[in-house]
Design brief:
The chain is mainly α. Helices cover 57% and strands 0% of the residues. 1% of the residues are buried.
Length: 91
């Protein structure tokens, strides 16, 4: 089990993701049925990590994280070498 401060962070992140998904309109409209075969160990680990007991809520949270995921890392890496080598960065 993760330390309390980590559990608190995970809980806050979960609330933030769900709130952002609501604000983006991702949780509106008709519900869809999703069927999948997922290893029980993966589901159990994800539930333990997030504190989510409901499989439906877990899948909703996971899909919201993917739908809201930004591409900051990819954009940052793509900029490699974009600053001229003669620029004084003050370091």
């Amino acid at each position: 089990m993760p330390p309390a401060f980590t559990s608190e962070f995970i809980a806050r992140r979960r609330v933030a993701v769900v709130d952002a998904a609501k604000q983006a309109g991702l949780l509106e409209g008709e519900n869809s049925h999703v069927g999948a075969r997922i290893p029980q160990h993966l589901v159990s680990a994800a539930k333990a990590r997030t504190g989510i007991a409901s499989t439906t809520e877990l899948v909703e949270y996971a899909l919201a994280k993917v739908a809201l995921e930004d591409d900051f890392g990819l954009k940052l890496v793509a900029r490699k070498g974009a600053i001229a080598s003669d620029v004084d960065l003050g370091l």
